[in-house]
Amino acid sequence: MIYPKELPDTGELVIVKVSKIMPHGAYCSLQEYNADAYLPISEIASGWIKNIHEFIKEGQKEVAKVIFVDKSKKAIDISFKKATSGEKKNKITEYNLEKRAEGIFNKALVGSKSEDRKAEILKEVSQREQTYNDLINDIFENRDPLSGMKDKEFKQALYDLVFKTIKPKTYTVSYTVELTTTDTKGGIELIKEALSAIEQKGVEVLYLGAPHYRLQAEDSSYPKAEDKIKAAEAVLEKYNKRIAFAIRSNKGAASG
Known about the structure:
6 helices; Alpha-Beta Plaits; 5-stranded antiparallel sheet; alpha+beta; 3 domains; single chain; CATH 2.40.50.140; 27% strand; 10 strands
């Protein structure tokens, strides 16, 4: 977050670093807050733990779930075992994206020679966005989150850096198609003609070995990529009197 809360909330997932191991637990520093937390030995893993050093090491970074917060005493208890594998994976992704976005923000400060105005810029930005990642995403989506910002040099440097640094996500849809024909004279040329028409629809055709071909389409969203495949299928429908085809989907994927 641009301006983190003083303390996390109960149930919140946090990134921690084990700083001191005790016989019945460990003290950990919260990487997103200026605070420490206590990890009871019973919250490290399921089952009985004979030797705590076999389960955790000093300097180890881990995702934990906050299970107790006393704001008046600034006391925080955390649990490793109550954070599921899915929650840990999502939290690490979120944390890494936020750190990357913060790095872009700081680099823009340097590029625009605005380091001495950082506090003022942060105050203005925090009134518009809660996290660095939200800010960067809104810029990338052309929402102009810093419209009317006072520091125009920083704004321009940040926007330029975002579009230079971040690559758009692309989605790939892949299908395997089997093409056969009983036309012994012109069938092969007909298949070539159909595949050429498919490529004109923005679909890549990969030869897998007769009679199998892979139809692959990419776009900025899964539905758009899928629409290209549907257009390819429509092309094949036009040839269905002389070419028989069977098409099956492969698993779509996102990249970027």
